[in-house]
Design a protein that fits this description.
The chain contains 3 helices and 7 strands, in the order E-H-E-E-H-E-H-E-E-E. It is α/β, with parallel strands linked by helices. It has a 7-stranded mixed β-sheet with strand order 1-3-2-4-5-6-7.
Length: 138
Amino acid sequence: MIVVNEKLRRIVEQSGEYSYPHECCGFLIGREDQSGVRHVDRVVPASNVHDADHSCRYLISPHELLEQQRQARESGQKILGFFHSHPDKDARPSEYDRQNAWPQYIYLIVSIRKGKASDLTAWHWSEELSEFLPEQLA
């Protein structure tokens, strides 16, 4: 389970709306409690540096990733996962998402339809099953 309050969900949605018709991306920063529930305390938008079609791809620079890891660690937190948008597509992982997934992270996907956020879902990659599985979003 991943807990994301309404204010932080809205930041994800606004990032997708602002980037439309391109994909947005960013970090989910927070902590994991003793029962394994992940609590997002901060959402940090990132630059999409993918060198191909930004309407269906995103890439976060290694420099930005390392910087966010450092800042999270210094504040006693960690990167719990990433968010990105799907312009005019469902909030489900794409084939590109499957090919680039890391198993330890949660992925929030926001569907942006005609410039407006319409759906927000959470996923995690299962190495055992080689597929994304839905993650409970609270």
